[in-house]
Amino acid sequence: MELWRAIGLVLGFGIFVGCADHGGSALTGKVTGSPVRQKTAACSPLSENDLNENCHGDVQCYVPKNLGKTLAIAMGGYQTCVLTESRQVRCWNYGSDHSANQGLFQAPPKDLCEVQQISVASQHACAVTTQGLRCWGPWMKEANLPKDLGKIVSLSSGLNHTCALTDHGVRCWFLDGKELTDVVVPPKSAPAFASLSLGVFYQGGTFCGFATAPGGFFCWGNAHDPNAYLTKSDSRDSLSRKYGNIKMMSLAAAGICFVNDKGLVCGGPDLVTETSDRQALDVGVVTAMSSSSLKTCLMTEKMGFGCVSSTGDHDSLQASWPGVPSNLGTVTAFASGLFYECAITTQGVRCWTE
Q1: Is there a contact between 239 and 270 (Cβ–Cβ < 8 Å)?
Q2: Distance CA 232, CA 215 (A)
Q3: Mean pLDDT, rounded, of the chain
Q4: Helix (H, G, I), strand (E, B), or coil: what is residue 48?
Q5: Minimum mean pLDDT among 45-54, 97-106, 154-163, 212-221: which range?
Q6: CA 67/CA 174 separation, integer angstroms
């Protein structure tokens, strides 16, 4: 599969932080995996009247009116969803046809209420509510969703699938809700995870989790695919030996970015086999990361919010920082989609592209 085709397939982009994904924190209370239809009044999801027409590719123009205060944001493919202060989910599409776009967009269920966390792929989306797991999409059948998930800590979406980090381990399902037990699920040799990062790294399917121990990252995927980088123990060990304590990682189609004790390091597949170490960009403490096809965005305590090339070396990372619109305002949450990024700011939801 050539690179650009791989980029076109990448979908589950959202915030990846140390202990939770897609802007959600570890959930409190008991949340089970059985989908439950809530017996409440309709939660008034985004209507067609709220969608902006004739935007002609202007990503900010597609952001709906009257979103109100938003708490979290998640993106997958061309779809963006936000979690509002009223714990409802509002979604929209970037494209000439908001409601269709080749059948990949579907509004959330009208009875989706009391949402605690969201995760978005390009052909489906999922939410954790106080009463259970809910997923929707053109081909999603909630009856197929895995049962007895236990307490859900975080959700993360990858290529046509979503995985949940639960108190019982990692459980994954496909865009039709059917549970996956093949290469998408980490092997029994994997450690206990504190967080997940799912995505397509370069041309192969690679999925990574972080153990509670420092530097304890573990990646899995289709080990028979020669392009499935980091799924082999020698590749992971090589990266750890070269770069030490890897604290956080975010996968993109074109490359990978991670944070170690020295700062931010990004690169393509050759990062694993390069004979010399790449110089890290000192960005201070990183609190969140999110990767799209070509970009990785991160929130830092030292340098604030910025987006860089997922394959850039030290000099290009430094020269391009911050790489975001100058008038964003204060960013409180962010996510990356296919070729564009969005953030929740003091001025509302802002989206941009190169």
Answers
A1: no
A2: 17
A3: 75
A4: helix
A5: 97-106
A6: 29
Could you give the C-alpha distances from 217 to 212, 235, 248, in angstroms and in order?
Answer: 9, 12, 8
The per-residue pLDDT for 209 is 67
| 0.85 exceeded by pTM | no
The CATH architecture that domain 3-33+51-182+196-203+282-352 belongs to is: 7 Propeller (2.130)
Q: Is the pLDDT at 133 greater than 50, yes or no?
A: yes
198 neighbors 192 (Cβ within 8 angstroms)? no
Inter-residue contact 6 to 106 (CB < 8 Å): no
Token pair recorded at residue 31: 């949340």
Is the torsion defined by CA of 103, 133, 181, 155 positive or negative? Answer: positive
Give me the residue spans of the domains in the chain. 3-33+51-182+196-203+282-352
Tokens for 113, please give them: 């209420």
- Does the pLDDT at position 11 exceed 50? no
Q: Which residue has the tokens 């991160």?
A: 298
SS3 217: strand
Give, in order, the Cα–Cα distances in Å from 239 to each of 151, 178, 215, 295: 32, 34, 11, 21
Sole residue written with tokens 């991670």: 258
| C-alpha to C-alpha distances, 41 to 37, 81, 84, 111, nearest whole angstrom | 11, 21, 17, 7
